[in-house]
Amino acid sequence: MSLLNSPDPAVREAVVRQDLGNVLHPIVQHRALEAKQIVVTYAEGSTIVDADGTPYLDGMAGLWCVNIGYGRTELAEVAAEQMRQLSYFPHTAMNVPAAALAEKINLHMGGGYHTYFVNSGSEANEAGFKIARQYMKHEYPGEYRFKTISRYYAYHGTTLATLDAGGMGERKAKFEPFSGDFVHVAPPYCYRCPFGLSYPSCGLACVKNMETAILGEGPETVAEVIIEPIMSGVGVAVPPDEYLPKVESLCRKYGILLHIDEVINGFGRTGKMFAHQHYGVSPDIIAVAKGISSAYLPIAATVVKNSVFDSFLGEAAENRQVAQVNTYGGHPVAAAVALRNIEIMEAEKLADRAATTGAYLIDGLRGLMSNKIVGDVRGKGLLIGVELVKDRTTREPISAAQMTSVVDFCRDHGVIVGRAGGGRRYGNTITLCPPLVITHAECDRIVETLGQAFATLDVG
Ligand SMILES: Cc1ncc(COP(=O)(O)O)c(C=O)c1O
């Protein structure tokens, strides 16, 4: 029985004691957890419920991942059935659900791809770096094409290499120095254009900056460019439509692989199955995670174009096979759950729904621009950022304490919203990434609660 209808303060207190005495939590300060905890015991649709019975509308789909919404009990049945049939065997052999899932992914990519399974978005990108490097060793023997070009303010994961690829200074600071294999260029964060320019008169200075970096490094040292089409972590930076095609042209011009990070953007989130499909590009490597299973089980994948896959074919003695392995990759239970998750997305047309509900939510949020602290409202589908400023002309960000007060106000009024990880400077965007099943009434509630939170701020 769920705790939705049976809150039990004694049980809740015991869990809090047990947790604080034993768990090391990620990224949150334990003292903050001591002051205010949420003990999640139940969830359904777009709502999570605390052990004390308090419901919260989850405007972030967990950690940008529960795309089909909570409480789909049919996935529990799929998992149980698969465990009875085959709980696990390493993916050096074939299994039924992983083969079917790879075929499904290939179908949604438009054909011409093979899938390598891993367990998290970080691992999917990390495997992508390694596949790009190995590909270059095969195709350019004797040369050293190993660098990855990435963008400042990007986030690509938590392992050392993916963190290095990312461009969020404060997340990296405690782990420096890094290898230097990742070269950073200016992001297409148009609201805060690094060149102080405006689109379209900027002539896409950020792409020119990328070409300068490629030439400066020497194209013969570069393996790939990694791009998250819509940069989530910095506060949902949506690039001009021609940005990604221009980056792809640079890759083709210099023989560099295009690695797309669809970890958040993928699986319907932006109104298409994959965000790169908005821009008509044909990536060589695609990292997928999160929405692939809507986080019902951990699974992720590195999807490679057949032209890359072909480079890994040969006689055993040629040693061209994928030179990496992980215990749980292609896990049959996770694959079966992911497959059914995608079938649910197809049956309920959740990508289309993200497009229409997202437009509705963005429209509602733009209504909040009557409050002058709302500097920008942007997004695609149900991936949305609301950037908060002290002054619309100077675009000076509101303070970190004011951001915290907005997020806390919403939580205290039953709505969970996110905030940008930012760079060293920009954490002043409220992020929204709700389950794709969110209703219009729930969107109205998010808008209304944010409006109330903004009204409490005094920015002078
Ligand atoms: C764009 C992007 N790439 C990669 C990752 C890493 O995924 P994971 O946390 O599953 O390792 C994240 C995580 O939020 C992400 O936002």
Folded structure, characterized:
The protein is an alpha/beta fold and 460 residues long. The chain has 15 helices and 16 strands. It has helices at residues 9-22, 30-35, 61-64, 73-85, 96-108, 121-139, 160-165, 169-172, 205-217, 243-254, 306-309, 332-347, 350-366, 400-412, 440-456; strands spanning 40-44, 47-50, 55-58, 113-118, 147-151, 182-185, 222-227, 257-261, 285-288, 300-305, 374-380, 383-391, 396-397, 415-416, 418-419, 429-432. The strands form three sheets. It has a seven-stranded mixed sheet, sandwiched between helices. Strands 11, 12, 13, 15 and 16 form a five-stranded antiparallel sheet that branches. Strands 1-2-3-14 form a four-stranded mixed sheet. Strand 2 and strand 3 form a beta hairpin. The chain is globular and about 65 Å long. Pyridoxal-5'-phosphate binds next to helix 6.
Q: Helix and strand layout, with pairings?
A:
Elements lengths: L8 H14 L7 H6 L4 E5 L2 E4 L4 E4 L2 H4 L8 H13 L10 H13 L4 E6 L2 H19 L7 E5 L8 H6 L3 H4 L9 E4 L19 H13 L4 E6 L15 H12 L2 E5 L23 E4 L11 E6 H4 L22 H16 L2 H17 L7 E7 L2 E9 L4 E2 L2 H13 L2 E2 L1 E2 L9 E4 L7 H17 L4
Parallel strand pairs: 3-14, 5-6, 5-7, 7-8, 8-9
Antiparallel strand pairs: 1-2, 2-3, 4-10, 9-10, 11-12, 12-13, 12-16, 15-16
Helix pairs in contact: 4-12, 5-12, 9-10, 13-15, 14-15
Bound molecules: pyridoxal-5'-phosphate (PLP).
